[in-house]
Amino acid sequence: MKFGPNNHEERFSQGHSSAATVATIEAALSADPDIDSSAIEVRMLGPVVLLEGYITKPADRDKAIALAAMIVGEENVHDRMLSRFPPQ
């Protein structure tokens, strides 16, 4: 299976389930040691991936979006994450 922006619509229309897409993105987020993904939720709305929840570092937003975009394409990722930075 090839990931990338050019084949998401095709896979989705061929029965690639939302649950499988969510699981793939969650696994990619969990596997990245540089992202605190414990408070990031991944949901699907049709072919669009919604990234919701909280991030604790500004760089986490960009990394989470980039990982999801590698799987479903940048145009299919919608960021709804909120910033919750620890006091310094």
TrEMBL record:
Residues 17-85 form the BON domain. InterPro entries: BON_dom. It comes from the Bacteria. This is Osmotically-inducible protein OsmY. It comes from Rhizobium aethiopicum. The lineage of its organism: Bacteria, Pseudomonadati, Pseudomonadota, Alphaproteobacteria, Hyphomicrobiales.
